[in-house]
C-alpha cells in the first residue's frame, strides 16, 4: 500500500511537472516579438580609416570591404547569441552608425543587450507625421532669389533628402523641364531609383534624383494593407509630397482645387533636387525604417535632410539626446549634413517639443498674414464670418434661401439607425425630409459625433449632395463650446461657424423667423440666408503668430522633464495653412481625395521651409558647415511681427493670444535675405557636442561613450557653454560666466559694438564691448550674468 502511495505521489509529481512545463511553453509562445535597434562598437563606413592590406595591383573599394565586414559581424553576433528561428534581422546600419535592427522577443533581446560589442539596445518607439504664398511672405522673390539669379537658379546644385511618406511623381511640382535643364551634375550624390507599384523606374526624372523605400520595420510590426501600403516610393498619403514641394517644388505651379484657381505654388528652393526616402506607411511607421533611411540618405550624399516625422513620445529608458534617433542625427551632422526636424504638434503646453538635440534644427510653426474668410449672410442683413474654402450659394450671396435647422427637418415617423444627437450633425441623409431641405441652407450642429471623432465633414458633403442642399452651415454647440476650424475645400457651398457667440446669433435669428405649432413642430420656415464666396484670400492679419498646435520648450533631458540648457525650438517658420502638392489617393484624409493640392497645418509644414532656405544658403556658401548655416538663420531671425510689435502666440482658448517667448519661437521668424549674410557665425562641431553631452547633469561619462563612442576628456563646466547662437540657463543662481566664439565670414574686416537687453532680474555684462575681427578670424566673447532679483 505504501508502494502504491509512493507511485501515486510520483505520478502526481510527474503530472505537476508536466503541467508546469506546459505553462512555461505557453508563456514562451505568448511572448510577442518587438523591434529593437542595436548599436555596436566599431566605426561605421563614413568615419572609418581603412586598414585593409592590398596586394600589388589589387583593386578593392575599402568602403565596400568595411561595409561587408560590419554586416558579417552583425550576422555572426546574432547567430552565436540567439536561438535559431527566434529572430529576424531587418537592417544592418553601416554608413554613419554601426548597428542593426532586429525583430525578436524581449527575452532574446536581453541576450543581445548583454552580448560583447553591443553598446546600446532600444525598443522601437514608432514614428508619426508632424502634420503657395510663403515665398512672398518670407521675401524670397525680391530677396534671395534675385541675388541668386532668380527662381531659375534658386537651389541649383543642392540635393534635399526627405524622409517621409514618399512622393507623387506625376505631380507638376516635381516635373522636369527640358527647356530649363539643370546646370550641375551632382557629382557628390549617388542615389538610386527604386521602382515599384505606381512608381515606374522613370519617375526619377532629373528633378527627383533618387527614390527609395524602407519597409522592413513596418512589415515586421504589422500586416500591411497591400491596397494602400505600397512597397515603393509612391506617396499614397500626400504628406511627403506636400513637404517636398514646400521645400523644393517647381516655381509657379498653378494651384487649382474644385475648379477654382488659388494662385501659384513654389518651393523655397525651386531648383534644388529631391531625394525621396519613404519610411512611413498609411498603416504605421517605425523608427527602425526612419533611421535606416537616414543612414542611406547620408551615404547617398544629400546636402540637407528633412525630418517632418518623429517619435511618438520621448524615450522612457534613456536620455532624450541619447536615443537611437538622436544619435543618428548626431552622426548625420558629423558627416556634414544639415538636419532640420519638426518640433512637434503638441502645443501650446510647455515641455512638449520632440526636437531635443542642438545638432538638429527644431522648427516651430506660425501663420502668415493670409487668411480665408467665409461669410454667412442672414435675411436680417447680419453678416457672420466663418471658415471654409467654399464657393457661394447660387446668386453669389445676393439671392437668399430658406434656412432650416437639421433637427427640425427630421422625417416624421422615419426609421433610421442612428441616435438623435448625430441627426443634428447632418451625417445621415435618410434621417432628413428631402422635401424640407432641398434647395435650402441647412444648419448642422457640432455635437457629440464631432466631439468624439465619429462624425465628419465628408458625411455632411454627401448628405448635402444627395438631398440637394443649397448650402450648409456647421455651427458651434454651446454644450461643447467653440471648436477649431481650418479651411478645407468644400465641394458644395458651406461655412463653419466655430464660435458659440456667433452660433447663438444664427440660432436667435432662426427662432425669431420660424413658426411652430403647440407641439413644437415647424409649420413655416421664415428665415433666409446665403453663403458668400469664401475662397478669396485676405492679406490683412497680424503675422507671424505662433500656432496653437506648435510644440513648446523648454528642452528637457529625460522623461522627468528635467530641463536642458539648449533653446528649443530653434526657429520659427510658416506652418499654418500652407498650400502645397498632394496625392489624390489621400488614404488618411478622405476629405482631400482626388485633390492635387492641399492646404495643411503643422510643424511638418514649417520644417521644409527651413530645409529649402538652408539649400539657398548652402548654394551660396558651399563651404559652410551645418552649424554655420544654423547660426546664420538664428542670429538674423526677427522677434517682431508685421505690426512692429513682439511676436504673439496662440493659447489654449480659441482666439486667445499672449506675448510669446523664445520657448515658443526659438530665435524668431526666419529671415532668408539676412541669413545669406549674417556677418558673424557661432558654430560647433562634433567634439563640441560630445563635450556638451558630458556636461549634462546626472549623465555618467560611460553612458556617453557607450552611446556615441566619444570620450569625456574636455567636458564643459555647464551645458550652456556649448558654442551655439543662444544662451539658455534653466536655473540661474548668483553669477554665471558663459563664453562664445564668433567667426567673421565676411570678406573684409568688420567692427562690432555689443549691446544687450537683459532679462528681468538679471544683470548682463559683456567683454569686450566692441571688437574688430579679420576675415575668417575669430573673437571670443565673455557673457557674465548676475541675478539681481530672484524670481518668486
Automatic annotation (TrEMBL):
Xref: Gene3D superfamilies: 2.60.40.2310, 3.50.30.30, Peptidase S8 propeptide/proteinase inhibitor I9 (3.30.70.80), Peptidase S8/S53 domain (3.40.50.200)
Domain Subtilisin-like protease fibronectin type-III: 721-789
Major subcellular location class: secreted
Protein name, per record: Peptidase S8/S53 domain-containing protein
Family: Belongs to the peptidase S8 family.
Localization per record: Secreted
UniProt-recorded Gene Ontology molecular function terms: serine-type endopeptidase activity
Active-site residues, as the UniProt record annotates them: 164, 239, 604
Domain called Inhibitor I9: residue spans: 67-129
GO biological process terms, semicolon-separated: proteolysis
UniProt signal peptide: 1-30
An annotated GO cellular component: extracellular region
Residue ranges occupied by any Peptidase S8/S53 domain in the UniProt entry: 155-640
Keywords: Glycoprotein, Hydrolase, Protease, Serine protease, Signal
Source taxon at top rank: Eukaryota
Pfam families linked: fn3_6 (PF17766), Inhibitor_I9 (PF05922), Peptidase_S8 (PF00082)
SUPFAM superfamilies associated with the record: Subtilisin-like
